[in-house]
Amino acid sequence: MTKKEAKQRIEKLKKLINRYRYSRHVLDKELVPIDVEDSLKKELFDLEQKFPQFITSDSPTQRVGGRPLEKFVKVRHPQPMLSFNDAFSQKDMEDWLERISRLLTTEEVKEIDFYCEPKLDGLAIELIYENGIFKTGSTRGDGIIGEDVTQNLKTIEAIPLRLTKPVEVVARGEVIITKKEFEKINKEQIKKGLPLFANPRNLAAGSVRQLDPKVTSQRHLDSTCYELISDFGQKTHQEKHKILKDLGFKTNNKYSKYCRNLNEVFDFHQVTQKLREKFPYEIDGLVVTVNPNKIFEKLGVVGKAPRGAIAYKFPLKQATTIVEDIRVQ
């Protein structure tokens, strides 16, 4: 095989593997059996070993590699990564809307509508792409400075190494682990005589903060994106979600909903709560965001939370404990 032929075959394999990855891990649709995907990855790996000059950072073979880190490097976020204030009832939501309405004109209040999405119980991350290639991934940290966990995030198949367009992008999302994978890992812990992980969030967070990316890769983490910091001319939060999906990110769009008013938010909250157990991963409420970006930005920040969005939490799960015996000494 000549260098030219090798380069052409490597490029074709990368495109094929990425297409199958995107379909499997983002769209939840299997185009080919996993064995076929694995054989293509093996062919790509072998070719890259023979022609290392054609190895690129966005190659599927580069998801797991490198030596364990001695420590995580600190990185500054382009914009602060905020967290949300909580609401636990319809009254809390009405009070929130009343508070933010006081900061707006009468016309702006009339323009308020909402975009609602599941509140994931995972680890918040930021992803930076240069010319469409994944460059840096970091944790929230204190909101201003996080930790560089790029190598670990590369092991998550739902995170694209190359976007559909060669653009500069700053996106944010969450690293999560499915309920099924969480149960599987805890079964392995039992077999090994090791302590169980308390919950999926702790497991996801601990997995991302491993110094050895090979350990992270064994956890089969998942990820979705829900915030676009870069300006693509988007007018609403809903548009941000559409752009993220078009760029190749995994989103929760199919579980999210545009709501014209709080009554529609309340209805969607009830529906989502009833379907909560059917979700593939843990959620603990809805994130309700003022949809028009212009109004959202005008509302600004209070403390470390945006005024224009709130976490509308579900009631705490109730469990029944059976007392089998009481012994008095």
List the helices and strands and how they pair.
Blueprint lengths: L2 H24 L7 H17 L23 E3 L9 E2 L2 H12 L4 H6 L2 E7 L2 E8 L2 E7 L5 E3 L2 H4 L15 E8 L2 H13 L8 H9 L4 H5 L4 E7 L8 H11 L9 E3 L2 H13 L8 E8 L2 H7 L1 E2 L2 E2 L2 E5 L16
Parallel strand pairs: 2-13
Antiparallel strand pairs: 1-6, 3-9, 3-10, 4-5, 4-7, 7-8, 10-13, 11-12
Please give a structural write-up.
The chain is α+β, with helices and mostly antiparallel strands. Among the domains are: 1-61, Helix hairpin bin (Helix Hairpins, Orthogonal Bundle), CATH 1.10.287; 86-121 and 252-313, Dna Ligase, domain 1 (2-Layer Sandwich), CATH 3.30.1490.70. Helix content is 37%, strand content 20%. The strands form four sheets. Strands 2-13-10-3-9 form a five-stranded mixed sheet. A four-stranded antiparallel sheet has the order 5-4-7-8. A two-stranded antiparallel sheet has the order 1-6. Strand 4 (123-130) and strand 5 form a beta hairpin. Helix 1 (3-26) packs antiparallel against helix 2. The longest helix has 24 residues, at 3-26. The protein starts with a helix and ends in a 16-residue tail after the last strand.
State the low-pLDDT regions, or none: none
Q: Could you give the distance between the termini?
A: 83 Å
Strand-pairing-aware structural class: alpha+beta
The percent of residues in helical segments reads 25-40%
Q: Mean of the pLDDT scores?
A: 92
Overall spatial form: globular
CATH architecture annotation name of the domain at 86-121 and 252-313:
2-Layer Sandwich
Largest sheet, spatial ordering of strands: 2-13-10-3-9
Query: Can you write the helix and strand succession as a string?
Result: HHEEHHEEEEHEHHHEHEHEHEEE
GO molecular function: DNA ligase (NAD+) activity
Organism: Candidatus Nealsonbacteria bacterium CG_4_10_14_0_2_um_filter_37_10
Pfam families: DNA_ligase_aden
Domain NAD-dependent DNA ligase N-terminal: 5-329
